[in-house]
Design a protein that fits this description.
- The chain is mainly α.
- About 70% of the residues lie in helices and about 5% in strands.
- The protein has five helices and two strands, in the order H-H-H-E-E-H-H.
- It has a two-stranded antiparallel ribbon.
- A hairpin with a 5-residue loop joins strand 1 and strand 2.
- The N and C termini lie far apart (about 55 Å).
C-alpha cells in the first residue's frame, strides 16, 4: 500500500511539473522574473523545518551523514542542476516580452532525473533512512538552487537585451 501511495505522489509531481512547464510557455514571465526564484524561497524553509524535525525524533539518535556522502550528493546535485539549466532557455518575442523557450527534451530530462533519484534511493535502501533523507534533501536543494538561480540569470540576460 505504501509503494502505491509513493508511486501516486511521484506520478502526480511529474504530471504537475510537465503541466506547469507546458502551460508557462504560453504566458510571458512577469515580475522581472522573480517568480523563477520563488521555489527556492519555499523549499529552504520547508527543508529547514524538515531537518529540524528529523534531528528531534524521540528515541532515534541523529547522526549527520559522513562528509564523503555529502560530497557525492553535492556533486550529483550540481550535475542535475547543470543538466536542468542546460535545458532551460528564454526568448524575447515580437511583443517585447520574455517567454520560456519550448524544449521537447525537458520532460525526458525531468523523468530521467526522477528515475535516477528513485534508483539511488532503492540502491541505498540499507542506509539509515534519516541519513538518506538528509542526503536527498541536500542534493535536491543544490540542483533546485543551481537550476533556478541560473534560470533567473538567463532570464535577466535575455530581458536586458534590447
Amino acid at each position: 500500500m505504501q509503494s502505491i501511495v509513493s508511486l501516486f505522489i511521484v506520478v502526480l509531481v511529474i504530471g504537475l511539473v510537465v503541466w506547469m512547464k507546458s502551460r508557462g510557455r504560453k504566458q510571458p514571465i512577469k515580475r522581472n522574473g522573480f517568480g523563477i526564484l520563488a521555489p527556492i524561497l519555499v523549499v529552504i524553509p520547508l527543508m529547514s523545518f524538515s531537518l529540524y524535525q528529523i534531528t528531534h525524533i524521540p528515541g532515534k539518535p541523529f547522526h549527520f551523514p559522513p562528509y564523503w556522502e555529502l560530497l557525492i550528493a553535492g556533486v550529483l546535485g550540481i550535475l542535475f542542476g547543470m543538466i536542468m539549466l542546460s535545458q532551460t532557455a528564454y526568448e524575447r518575442r515580437e511583443d517585447g516580452l520574455v517567454y520560456s523557450k519550448p524544449n521537447k527534451n525537458f520532460k525526458f530530462v525531468i523523468l530521467a532525473i526522477i528515475a535516477i533519484r528513485i534508483a539511488l534511493a532503492q540502491y541505498f535502501k540499507s542506509m539509515d533512512y534519516l541519513e538518506l533523507t538528509v542526503l536527498t534533501m541536500f542534493m535536491a536543494l543544490l540542483y533546485l538552487g543551481i537550476w533556478r538561480i541560473g534560470s533567473f540569470v538567463k532570464f535577466r540576460h535575455v530581458s536586458a537585451l534590447d
